Amino acid sequence: MTIKFNGLEFNDVEFEEINSRNIFRIYDNERKSSLDFEYKPTVYTEYDKNDYQLILLENKYLKAENDVFQVFGEKIVNGKPVKNCLGWIFTISNLESLEHDYVDNVHLNKYKFVAFLLILLNCNKEFINYKEKYSLSDIYEDDVIVFIVCKKT
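RESULT FIELD:
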């Protein structure tokens, strides 16, 4: 999958801090042009994107930035069920806002960083007009729900 603009394909993503703003910058194959996506949540870069799977869902009822759900599973340890976090479900708008009840949730923010990166790496979008900075809402409608799971758990 790739992002296209002006006849170029953009699929090389890097995270950078530029002028006190957190940016996911996507370069074209020759690294001559780039597109910027501002990242607003708290930054946690220590997770490896290969350890996570992203599933995008549609739901016309879950649109609020506070529609956030932690997903749990159980495994048996020493004959007893142990609850562990598998991942998170949240709206695409939650990735673009700091106006919700989960803004300081460290665990959610770690998943959000990986989710944002995986969204950019796996989207298929052609932009017509140039903007100084893009957002995920330029790619997806507000009825998109992010489900990100850790493959290890």
